Predict the 3D structure of the following.
Amino acid sequence: MAARFSGGTLKSISTDSAMSQTRSMRPFIVLGILVGIFALSTAVLAVILATNNKTTKNNELCVTPYCVKAANYLIESLDESAQPCEDFYQFVCGTWIKNNRIPDDSNVANTFNLLRTQLDYNVVDILTPSSTNDTNEPNAIINARNLYHSCINEQHIEDEGISPILSLINNQFGGWPIIQSSWDNSTFDILDLLLKLRKYNNNILFGIGTSVDDRNSTEYDLRITQSDLGLGQREYYMNESKITVAYRRYMFDLVSLLSNDTSTIEQDVKDMYEFEKEIAKHYWTTVEQRHRPNATIRTTVGKLRQLLNTTFDFTTYLTSAYASANVTLMDSDLVIVGEIDYLYNVSSIIEQVSPRILQNYVIWRFMMHRIDTLPKRFRSIKDNFDHVFRGTTSERARTVICGNYVNTFMGFAVSKLYIKKYFDDNARNQSYEMIANIRKAFIDMLDDSTWMDSMSKTKAIEKALAIDEKIGYPDYLASDNVTQLEIQYADYVFDSSFINNILKLLQIKAKEEFQVLRKHVNHKGWGSSPPTVVNAFYTPSKNQITFPAGILQMPFFDKDAPKYLNYGGIGVVIGHEITHGFDDSGRQFDKDGNRIPWWTHETIEKFIERKTCIVDQYSNFTVPNLNIHANGNQTQGEDIADNGGLREAFYAYQKFTQANPDADKRLPGLSKYSPTQMFFINYAHTYCTKMTDSYVRVLFESDTHSLGQFRVNGPTSNFVEFDRAFNCKPVTQGEDIADNGGLREAFYAYQKFTQANPDADKRLPGLSKYSPTQMFFINYAHTWCTKMTDSYALNRVLSDVHSLGQFRVIGPTSNFAEFDRAFNCKPGQGNSRVKKCTVW
């Protein structure tokens, strides 16, 4: 399941054309000899560092209540029968996986979900009416409680039944043919139907809305894109499976509750599914959206009809939808068109499909998203589908479902209560300090990088320095002045009908999205996600990182935790989000959040070479029992962030320990593990995961994150500091990295010398056919010429941390594109591998 550990970050370097230079010999001979000296000295240093990692100056135990609690959950997680150097995820999470079960109402158990469950019940607690509630609460909080109460009042939901929804469908949307004995299609108009549904925040068939202009991040623009599919991803529709069977059964069972005449239902369900299957053929996957060239096209409202010359009138759809929110579009308004071939193809498909199929399908998609608001008999049908699709076996507690609804729609009102009762501001203050330290570590990594040219590096450092951070919550939530909160939720007034409350909320949200078009982007403002979420974010358009109150909890963070736990927990998350500003997507945005070229072409090419190796590495990860491979292209942004985040947090923690060598005490029962080892252990523990097979398949189809085991074993296998911390054997990785690094650094130093002194070196007699560059490599290899007995070679292989001489030559040269250029090697030819690996 996990890849074998091999220290060092894997980065690929493509082969280039041959290059030759005519220069003399003396400096490169000296430098070639120095390569060996450099590698040997680095080896000694590596051994010292590895030895130092085994002990700390302070072996005292931390016996505070927090440390005892942390020790308990980590001891109960570790599987010490596993080898950390072979499968670190199993070593840290093996016992946790064995002892934890997936809740019946979920498809996954992991640290994030455990924290979310805790947060869910905290939200339920603060929304539940109590005699201790403030009698002078803001209206926003009063209405949040009213919404919650309408949701948990199941008797009222049962009494109301389905009538409010059916009344809306019949009176505003033109009915639902599948449940009607007769249906008149003479007035059917797909454009009019979609417009009416868009007022209730439904993007069906096509998506329209407002977003930040990626080239001018101070303004908003209009968007037209593909919408979503009932099953989420295209691949589900390509082959018949138990999921597609369950999906059609879901449709059939729902409709059967609304109609006594089942004679036509089966055919209607088949027609709806076949229609959606046809749409799915043109649907862009996550990978395609991220990596297709020209994925979006910029135009204006006035030119939109010329660009989208289709039977479906996108211009009228867009202008009429915004007009419903009292926003008048102008011809000059910017429109971003995404997935244009989907828009063309689906427009053509709906022209050829009967009105009955279109009406049935569109209303089905509306109903599909409303089932959680309906009586129990309808929700049970959804539970049956989720059992197949997601692997869950029961519905979540009604109180939790309702708390989630309120948190989704009125999260900032909920957060005002949450931070007052459950959040410690010490977490906020310490997080600012950690961000500063981790940002500094990342900037040092940028500064030390050898593959970025000076112009790109300078701008990257400027961007890193410009990253805005948001921690815990926006300040206004802690203030006694509730004016901003009251304005934010002025329209959010609710009665006892949960269904009507949800329909009202949908209309409010649709208007809010349209009306934001005429506002300016607040670059320093808190984003749209409330503090009551267990997550963290990087927003490219703002160059902003956000760490809500919900994630600043154990095991990610605690104000009383040893620093190795905090840096291995929230520290890695901080580094992860910072790195997102420089992953395959984030690196396209400058420090002001604008998508403009700011790296040189040379640096971009080298970045692509490096990230390609990450893609290849993760694509080789598998889940054997399910016979599925990870998709490194789909997860590359998160994988890059995972690798970078671990390094940044580690180096920041190292700096902390250098300044505070005796600050951290060891945990009781875990004293044999050094603080450095505990940093990695807590990092891995945050990704301990157990999930249903169905959910694994869902994630492989759609999630941009790798599975937990890959998020642990991938970054640690790429990090030599991990090998040193756990004294992994055989530890040739550190020596191999030293050899690779020594060769590169000496070569680049020699290059700089020849640029400054182009005529300094003369060729050697009898070897004049070899360029000075080739002689550099020849002399490097000559220093490792070796002959030994078979018995000594065997002993070396079994015990020595250094590779054999031939490998110390072939390895580094095969990983170095400049060697290929010097000798005009072709990819795959002998010493030249197609996939080149290097280390930051």
